[in-house]
Specification:
The protein has 212 residues and is of the alpha+beta class. The chain has 9 helices and 7 strands. It has a 4-stranded antiparallel sheet with strand order 4-5-7-6. It has a 3-stranded antiparallel sheet with strand order 1-3-2. Helix 6 runs parallel beside helix 9. It comes from Streptomyces achromogenes.
Length: 212
């Protein structure tokens, strides 16, 4: 079986609408979630949620860990809960096959070697500001539409997903600088983007300016 066949099989698991709903809920959660929380969010029974969650684990889309949610240890603390989170890695299908990632890597290498960081950031900031939804009040919707998966931490917006993860891993200074500039262009006046990486997420966070 080719890598493409494996990816097709993996993504076929999401053909079931209930399974897609569960995957989206787990993927959007900033922390690991248990079966009870997933079942309640989806409006289905715990046993049905467990069945679909385990199918997603078998397909490599979710991973599992075990932890006592009460925080207690020792005798009488109860069994550890089975918790789910989105698996690492990326899955993409292109028909016919394309190699945009290779082109992106080549362009990033050329820009980095030529020292064109500032020019790239200026272009990214202008692109963000020119986006039709830029500077609207619903910053979370704008970010979500671009693949960032925002979530709240008080008055702070964290971004659980980096849309440029593969390139950011190879060219962190170049791509993270571009990413920050892009979000600066997208952000309305009351939001202040800054570099503050979160584990497994994006390098940028947004905080509300004190004047707002």
């Amino acid at each position: 079986m080719t890598d493409e066949d494996s990816t097709f099989d993996m993504l076929a698991v999401l053909g079931d609408p209930v399974r897609r709903r569960l995957y989206r809920y787990v993927a959007a959660s900033p922390e690991e979630v248990g079966r009870d929380a997933v079942a309640e969010a989806a409006g289905i029974s715990r046993s049905l949620a467990a069945f679909h969650l385990d199918k997603l684990v078998e397909a490599g889309l979710l991973t599992v860990s075990f932890r006592r949610l009460s925080g207690r240890t020792g005798p009488g603390a109860g069994r550890p809960a089975k918790l789910y989170r989105r698996a690492e890695g990326e899955h993409a299908v292109s028909l016919p096959p394309r190699s945009y990632e290779a082109v992106g890597r080549l362009l990033a290498e050329v820009l980095e070697n030529a020292g064109l960081d500032r020019e790239l950031q200026a272009a990214a900031r202008a692109t963000g500001a020119a986006h039709p939804d830029a500077c609207t009040d619903d910053m979370e919707a704008v970010l979500r539409a671009r693949g960032y998966e925002p979530y709240r931490e008080g008055e702070t917006l964290r971004l659980r997903n980096c849309p440029f993860h593969a390139l950011a891993t190879e060219f962190p200074a170049l791509i993270c600088g571009m990413n920050l500039a892009l979000i600066e262009g997208l952000a309305p006046e009351e939001w202040s983007p800054a570099m503050d990486p979160c584990p497994g997420g994006c390098c940028v966070m947004l905080s509300k300016k004190k004047s707002h």
